[in-house]
Amino acid sequence: MGQEQRIQIEDDEAATKATRRSSTIEFRPRDPARTKAAILKAARDEFCELGLPGARVDAIAARAGANKRLLYHYFGNKEALYLAVLSDAYHEIRSGEQQLELDRLPPEAAMEELVRFTFQHFLANPWFPRLLSNENMQNARFLKQLPEIPALHGPLIEQIRTILQRGEKTGVFGSNLDPVEIYIAIAGLCSFYVSNMNTLSVIFERDLAEPFRIAQHETQAVRMVLDYLHRQPS
Questions:
Q1: How many domains does the chain fold into?
Q2: Residues with Cβ < 8 Å from 199, sequence gap 6 or more?
Q3: Whole-Å CA distances, 196 to 13, 51, 68, 115
């Protein structure tokens, strides 16, 4: 039996015992919502640093300053907690995009706002690309278990589609632009810089964490997206 299997068996056994205890023990944390949020953040940090196989429930509970039994009580087991972290990460960025109210802006300004928001979100949350990288290494095995994900992204794609159509109608954007491809391009321009900042800084001998370089890349990302949208297909 491999180490990863032993770790998972130990966590599953602990979860089973905690679940049994929770049926007889009444948990009364002073602030359940705050406790759940602390556990989610601690779990997110642990999963981003060590991946799902290397993360330990004991370490997550210690990071959160929470009783391990409460962790099991709220989330079930380690895999269920990972699913909760993954879901929360996607809900957070989609919620931020909705708050932009892009429909109130002219097409060019709307796309610029979306690019800047996406870059700033990755920059402020460098754990997010790490989490996605870990999930990709698992072939999106857990993301497939979240049925709400396609529906969560649907409104964003439709919003981009509407912006592109408005831009085409007014003559500022080209035609036949695919909103999914446009979003993938935006996410790539924004996330790659953040997730590879350290290695790129060494390779090119420039500190990409310097504020003026960050601002420069953000402006460049906006320009690249808008220049592409402006072009007319041949």
A1: 2
A2: none
A3: 38, 18, 34, 18
Per-residue pLDDT reduced to its tens digit, 133-191: 999 999 999 999 999 999 999 999 999 999 999 999 999 999 999 999 999 999 999 99
Are 99 and 64 contained in the same domain?
A: no
- Give the other-Cβ count within 10 Å of 53's Cβ: 15
Pair (198, 93) in one structural domain = yes
The verdict on 53 and 159 lying in the same domain is no
Q: Is pTM beyond 0.85 here?
A: no
Q: Which of 50, 76, 102 is the last residue of a domain?
A: 76
CB 64 within 8 A of CB 109: no
Per-residue model confidence (pLDDT) at position 202: 98
Collect all residues with Cβ–Cβ distance below 8 Å to 198 and sequence separation of at least 6.
Answer: none
Q: What CATH number is associated with residue 39?
A: 1.10.10.60
Domain that holds residue 214: 84-230
Q: Is residue 59 exposed (0-12), middle (13-18) or buried (19+ Cβ within 10 Å)?
A: middle
Residue range 87-113: average pLDDT?
95
Q: 183 and 138: one domain?
A: yes
